[in-house]
Amino acid sequence: MKTIGIFYGSTYGMTQKAAEKIKDAFGKTKVNLYDLKNASIKDIEKYTNLIFGTSAWGIGEMQDEWEMTIDDLSKINFSNRKVALFGLGDQLEYPESFVDGLGTMYCRLPDKSCVVGLWPSKGYNYYFSLADKDGKFVGLVLDDHNQENLTDKRITEWVKQLEKEFI
Ligand SMILES: Cc1cc2nc3c(=O)[nH]c(=O)nc-3n(C[C@H](O)[C@H](O)[C@H](O)COP(=O)(O)O)c2cc1C
User: Fold this and answer.
1) Which residues contact 127 (CB under 8 A, 6 or more apart)?
2) What spacing in Å lies between the alpha carbon of 90 and ligand 1's midpoint?
3) pLDDT, tens digit, 9 for 90 and up, residues 15-61
4) How far apart are CA 32 and CA 18, in angstroms?
5) Which of 52, 55, 91, 166 places its Cα 20 to 30 Å from the Cα of 132?
6) What is the Å distance from ligand 1's center to 56 Cα?
7) Structural domain boundaries in the chain
8) HEC-encoded secondary structure of the chain
9) pLDDT per residue over 100-156, tens digit each?
10) Which of 22, 33, 55, 140 to mutate to test the pocket of ligand 1 (most atoms within 8 A of CB)?
11) Are 114 and 122 in contact (CB under 8 A)?
């Protein structure tokens, strides 16, 4: 498999921790990890297989770094790329906007046809999520506030799925 670029925005380090676990789960496959605050669109452009990670803030907002970067993705041609998304949130405190950052990220991607890594929304407790499209999340959803015990298992399964869906 081609080298994977993981780009994440993380305010208190929770998305960063998840990104590091995802990298480790790929084992021998080469994965480069970028905190978005130290990366540019040119870095994103280097990869055919991409993973974008964000936490959820405010009303439907992505993590700050993504808010500042997402519109620049339109400068990249995604037609021969695959993009998988993951999002962190808190279903107990924010059940009406659970992982909305992930949903907003999906909405604002310039090309949604490149998205892989959809994830079942079963096993989470929430009223509404922008990331839920017809009973599936638009990417891996992690909640280290309430379901930290499930995170490693979810990451392992999702990475197995991506190994089939990536180029
Ligand atoms: C002010 C504030 C607003 C938040 N809003 C949401 C939200 O709307 N939906 C949600 O699922 N989580 C929400 N969260 C939870 C964060 O997304 C969660 O703590 C996440 O793990 C933080 O990851 P990070 O440290 O990588 O930024 C919010 C947290 C704070 C402090």
Assistant:
1) 95, 96, 98
2) 6
3) 999 999 999 999 999 999 999 999 999 999 999 999 999 999 998 99
4) 14
5) 166
6) 5
7) 4-165
8) CCCEEEEECCCCCHHHHHHHHHHHHCCCCCEEEEEHHHCCHHHHHCCCEEEEEEEEECCCEECHHHHHHHHHHHHCCCCCCEEEEEEECCCCCCCCCCCHHHHHHHHHCCCHHHEECCEECCCCCCCCCCCEECCEECCEEECCCCCHHHHHHHHHHHHHHHHHHCC
9) 999 999 999 999 999 999 999 999 999 999 999 999 999 999 999 999 999 999 999
10) 55
11) no
- Distance of CA 66 from the midpoint of ligand 1 (Å): 14
Residue whose CA is closest, atom 10 of ligand 1?
Answer: 89
- Calpha distance 34→16 (Å, rounded): 9
Superfamily of domain 4-165: Flavodoxin domain (3.40.50.360)
- Around ligand 1, the residues with Cβ closer than 6 Å are 10-15, 55-57, 63, 88-90, 94, 97-100, 144
Q: Is the pTM of this model over 0.90?
A: yes
Q: Of 17, 88, 144, which is best to mutate to test ligand 1, by the most ligand atoms within 8 angstroms of its C-beta?
A: 88
